[in-house]
Structure formats: structure tokens, C-alpha cells
Amino acid sequence: MKRKDFLSSIIPIGAVFSDMAFGKHIIEEPDIPSKIPPYLNKGDVIGICCVAGYITLEDTQSSINKIKEWGFEVKIGDTIGKRDFTFGGTDDERLKDFQQMLDDKNIKAIMCARGGYGLVRIIDKINFTKFILHPKWIIGFSDVTVLHCHINHNYSIATLHSKMCNSFPTDWNIAEPIQIDSIESIRKGLIGEKMNYNIAPNTNNITGKSEGILIGGNLRTIESLAGSVSDINTDGKILFVEDTDEYLYNIDRMFWSLKRSNKLSKLKGLIIGGFKIKQDDPGEEFGKTLEQIVLEKVTDYNYPVCFDFPVGHQKDNFALKCGIIHRLNVSPTQCSLTEIRL
Amino acid sequence: MIIPPYLKKGDTIGITCPAGYMEKEKAQTCITTLQQWGYEVMIGKTLGNNSKNYFSGTDEERLNELQAMLDDDRIKAILCGRGGYGVGRIIDKIDFKQFKRKPKWVIGFSDITVLHCHLNSKLKIASLHAPMAAAFNNDGFKNEYVLSLQKALTGKKISYQTTIHPFNKQGIAKGELVGGNLALLANVIGTPSDINTKNKILFIEDTGEYIYNVDRMFYQLKRSGKLENLSGLIIGGFTDTKDTTRPFGKTVYEVINDIVNEYNFPVSFNFPVSHEKENYTLKVGVNYQLEVGRKKVMLKEL
Hints:
The complex is a heterodimer. By secondary structure, chain A is α/β, with parallel strands linked by helices. Chain A is built from 9 helices and 13 strands. Chain B has helices at residues 28-36, 59-71, 87-90, 97-101, 113-123, 144-154, 182-187, 211-223, 252-260, and strands at residues 12-16, 40-43, 75-80, 105-108, 127-129, 159-162, 171-181, 201-207, 232-239, 267-268, 282-284, 287-292, 297-301. Chains A and B meet through helix 8 of A and helix 8 of B.
């Protein structure tokens, strides 16, 4: 089965009909918002596990304390503290741990302990049958983009793109407010607060207002899913991308990949998060800024573009609900991203 | 598949740089050698362009020159001076109408993989995955890898023999040869330049990649269906690979072998196609037989 749209609990009938009234071609993946996993209540259990890179139990302690402080219980997966070279356990161990948490009805959300690399090695072996029947929040970013894309495309279930266990500071007293706020946004997302972010404008922004399903994540990971069963359809959606430790030429090459595979042409909006750029070698200067790289790809299109959005491998990395309709409003004076409740 | 006419003495080869910058001096041995092989050489302005950045000229300059060489009937082959990065920026603006009427050999590797893939999938015109200008330097013009380009241009059918590798999977495969640089093969998936690998012999090389990223890209090939229906697989050099602070725990060939050993087609590891000196000319789009034996590996043009 290619896609299980019928699983969506709320179908915006009005939206579909208005498209038909205007005689527009209805695309294969219509603008149907995802099924939203139940938001969390006090006492609910959040599971933490390693799906990609390894982490020590000690390095998850701060996140465990904070999650408990929020009023939730924590279930520590077997993979926390496990190590198979760069991975948090072997493929089988990571798969088993995640699968158990996915199938355990007592666990209401799964926070991936950290990113790194490893999800594509196990994604095709994960059984989502129980998860589809009893969705829960999947939390993480970077390599966890594989899960966001896969779940969005195949099951239309909302997920939470946010910081993970390894980003919780050990000493909250010296943590920057922006980092604390980013972590606090996970809690807000999980208890069902309506997400609303306002950020300062970048002079390169393209102004405009639009609404669409929010989708996205790590650019390199999105590229590596192209052609696979986890590949995303971006038509009619607001796409956000971020990346770290990449050369400008490679960022350019990845944006060309998005453009040439028609992932930019039918967007409703584009959000550019943080990009940690690797310094060009002397004499090999790329000669274009990130903003130039992005803007030259979207000149033919007509949707708002927002730079410097606080999402990425950085202290300010706010929780974003993938699969849920948001309104992007980019004006000369500010930029806002607001979750829309139907 | 259309095979462009092979070259005769006196034919003209154009040199252009559709991607990264290259100093003119670094192409001098190549130019002299091509002349010694009996060809005229037409040098594009992008070679040694006064560009101040990474590229060998603006997109327009690189596009216009490649376009002019594709359209110029006097030019029988186009040798890309070097790779780097940049073909993907101009590929969709190239007009292949005239080239389709009068095909010619396009020569290069690395970033030129985008052209090979595009010519293979969209135009069904064969091209040459081969050493570029810098490979001629430091006595490179005398080595068998550069000389394999000379043979290929004249239309000689070539067989390559190479040594075995412990990871090889024995067998005989026949099929059209496609492939190139792994990062670019992955990059064009889902785009109009994406290749169909069904019943084909796929060759892959890369340089300077992190081992985990090679793993990720091979998973992408697998998950996008590029591996399952192959006739055969040629793993070239994976040079200058890098590892993360927390080691990946496998060599690059172990990574590849772990992913490809579930399939039944023959696989040849450490084949001389790479960013190093060992880089035989391969005719993309042409039928080959790959014979992976107990004592040797043969790749034979059919």
C-alpha cells in the first residue's frame, strides 16, 4: 500500500472541494494533515533509545531529570549506553529497542537520544503496524529526519522535530536562555500547546503568507532518501531544511537535487534553518552565500522564503510539528510560523 | 544506445571546463599528448579562465562554451578539463538538439558523472568515463590508464584484466555499462538525469568521503532499487576516505560488501576506476561482459 490517507482522522473536506471547484488537478498526495498522536498528560511515559549514534547513560541524565520534572515518566531503552563503534548498539539491538518502544502501548512518546547516523540501516525492518493503530510522538532531528520523512510519507502521522537527549545541558544555570527555551518547546509540543514562533527578519527573505503541511529536516538526510520508499512529497507543503558541517558547494548541489527532483516547484513556503558551513579551502572559494544559493533556486516560484529560522544543529532549535498544517507569514518586519488547528 | 563516431587522425577534440577551475598550464601535457595522438585540439576559454572563485567561469560562461562545443560539427569529442563541482548547475540549460543529431564523445569523470548519467538516461548516447587533463601530468600520459583513452577514442574494443579481491563475488555478467562517482549517482536520483540500472553493469568510485556517508549512499542505492536488478557490479577505488572521531568500525569495502553481498550478481572490488592514477577508460552505455573469476577479473567490451 503506497499511502494510507484513509487513516487520517481529520480530512479537510472544504479544502479538497474548493480545489475541485476551481478545476485544479488534485495531486496524488492531497493536502491532508496527519493523524496527530495523543498529546501527553502528567504521568505519561516517554521512552528514550538510540536509533543511530551511541550515547552513554550519563549523557542522557540531564534529559531524564528534565522530563521527570515536566511530570512524565521515563523508560530508558536497552540501547542507552550500548555501543557498536559509532552506533548505539548493533542494527539488531537498535531495531529491537525502537520496535519495543513503538509497540509498547504504555509509552506515549519516543525521544531519540541523539542523531549521528544509522536509521537508514534499520528503517525498512521496523514494523509500523501497531504504531499506525496507536500513534505516538516520535521526537528528534538530524538523522531522525529519516523517521520524520518515512512516517510522513507512508503513514501520515505527525512527528516532532526537536532537540534530543544529547542537547539537554548538564548545568541549567549556565545554559543560554535560547537553549532552555528550545528544550521547553519540546514539552509545549508534547502537551499540545499550539506552536507559534516569531523571529526577526533577514533582508533576503521573500515576503508572503501561506498555509501548508510542515515537513522537512536535515538536508543531507532528505537527499539520501530520494528515490526510496521514505522519500517525501513536498507538493503544497511548507518545507524546512537545516544542515551542519557541509561545504557550500555541497549545499548548492543538494539544493539542485531538490530543485531537479521537483521538490521546490510546488511548495507553499520554504524555511531555511541553521546551516553550519564548512570553510572552503583557500583558492577554492565557492563565491556564493547560502542566501544566494537558495534564492537562485526559487526565482521561478512564488512563495515566502524565510532565512535564519531557529531550527538546526545549534542552541536555538525549536520544536516543529511535522505533518501538521502551519501558517508561514513572512513580512518585512518579522516572520512567524503558527500551527493551525482545524 | 547511440555510439558516437570514433575519431580519425586530424579530428578535433575540444577541451572545456564545465565545473571546477583549472589552470591552463596544468592541461598543457594533455594538449600536447592529444596532438601527438594525431588530433587537433581546440581549447575553450573556461580553461584558465580568470574566475576568482571555485568555478572555471560563471554558469553562463561554462554553459555557453559546452553548448558551443556540443553544437560545433568540427569538434568530434569534448574532453572535460577537470571535475570538481558545477555540471549540475547547468545541465538543465544545455540544449542537446544538435548533439542528438550529431553525437560526439563526451569525456571525463567525477562531477562529469552528471553528464554521463544524463546522456545515458535522457539521450541514449554513449560517453567516455575516463581520465581528464590532470591525469596526463607527471608522466601520466605514458601510463596504461591514460593510454586506454587513446585506444577508446580510435574505436578499439578494449578488455581490461585486473586482480582478484577477497570480497569479489564470482560470476559472469553481461550488460550495458553505467556508473561513475557515488556522490553524484546519489545526487541525481529522482532528477531527470537519474539512471535506470536494470540488467546493467554498474561501476562506482568515490573520493574523500566519510565511511558512514558511503554506507548511507549505498543504502540509498539499495533503497531506491538501483541494486536489486543489476547484472553486475564494479567497485572502483574509494580513495582518501575519512572516518569520524568515533570510528565507524569497518573499512569502506567492508561497508560496501555488507550491503551488496545479499545479491547474486558478480561483484568486482578494487577495479581500476578511481580518482587515483588507476582509472581505465570505460564506455558508458556500451555493452560489456564482466567475468569475475577465481584468479582474475576481466571486463570485456562486446
